[in-house]
Known about the structure:
The chain is mainly α. Helices cover 77% and strands 0% of the residues. The chain has 16 helices and no strands.
Amino acid sequence: xxxxxxxxxxxxxxxxxxxxxxxxxxxxxxxxxxxxxxxxxxxxxxxxxxxxxxxxxxxxxxxxxxxxxxxxxxxxxxxxxxxxxxxxxxxxxxxxxxxxxxxxxxxxxxxxxxxxxxxxxxxxxxxxxxxxxxxxxxxxxxxxxxxxxxxxxxxxxxxxxxxxxxxxxxxxxxxxxxxxxxxxxxxxxxxxxxxxxxxxxxxxxxxxxxxxxxxxxxxxxxxxxxxxxxxxxxxxxxxxxxxxxxxxxxxxxxxxxxxxxxxxxxxxxxxxxxxxxxxxxxxxxxxxxxxxxxxxxxxxxxxxxxxxxxxxxxxxxxxxxxxxxxxxxxxxxxxxxxxxxxxxxxxxxxxxxxxxxxxxxxxxxxxxxxxxxxxxxxxxxxxxxxxxxxxxxxxxxxxxxxxxxx
Length: 406
């Protein structure tokens, strides 16, 4: 027999009570701040060819940069989320953006590879503070449309990730490493926006969030919840290990296989990342209507045929396939995150920190492992190897059925 609380898991908003209209202004503000935060992160990725030449780096060292900022974020995010579940810290968001700003300035004037790693660590710390609390605010501002709110929040981050390579191609490649410092202006704007969001959070929702936590009930027994969380983490592993191969080494793959220039390769990286941003918009709202599990099925396993074809395609079809992969695969995270939040009500910060942190960690570990593999074999071999990862989407069959299907 299904527990009464399970009636909300994966159900449509219309099936829930006490809903209001989403706070669109807050969702827009937190999404814009997410765009700034992730744009600054993506500048690191887009600068890899420049840094490789400037400091004579190997692919393993390139992977180590990604590992540093993503592992820093992954280790701290669950702890930050757990702490803020107990003691909300609305004004922590501007401090997180300030840490990312420090990392950006260090990156602009880094005289050595060691300082580049330090800059990456500051960016990771900023993300560890930003993501759990901002994800909680997106949920509080959702008016009950949790998938929609997470998609709005996520699309900001994916848009920022997408425009990073374009900005790098337009400004950083022609003008050099120190031109990164100009992007600190965007970070300052982000800090101002987050101060306003923090005021809204402090004034309206901390007490309400505490009341919801006190009355929250898990929809399934602990054993079922633990198993479902484990399956979701396997899916996150498959998604972000695969994305690490595409995002960290895509420019090198295009340069190596098709002889593109750095700027042309960054343009193709933008196509993939922009498609990922567009795909993010769909996952949450569709999950609100039909349930999270169908979206998870389609977004992870549905990528497998295209991923398996990618290493054998010419330049045109490589671009086309990566666009399709970005569109489909990016719809997964919002559905996975909201599904997990509904499995563990009252622990939004901890769940958000766990899943953002695990995603960052898998991305960083993937970049490091695949960089080492590329040094020992080739970039082409790496793309052949990671093509099989989306097949782990078959693990979705182990998730509990959503209540809308019961």
